[in-house]
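Quick check before the chapter quiz. The format below is the same one you will see on the exam, so make sure you can read both the input and the output lines.
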Amino acid sequence: MIDETLSKELNEIDVNELNNKCEECRNEDESVSQNLILTGFKLCKSCRVSKTIFPF
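Here is the expected output.
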């Protein structure tokens, strides 16, 4: 019983983590999940480029 509820909670956390919303601009983009896998940050293409050029 406890394993089932823990499993459901972990699945909800995983779904929320991969929701394709950029942490900077809050827009949904497919590139967010790709960048999350590549770099570990939830950024879209445009925010990733701007963070690369202007890292402040």
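If your answer matched, good. The CA atoms of residues 17 and 45 lie 18 Å apart.
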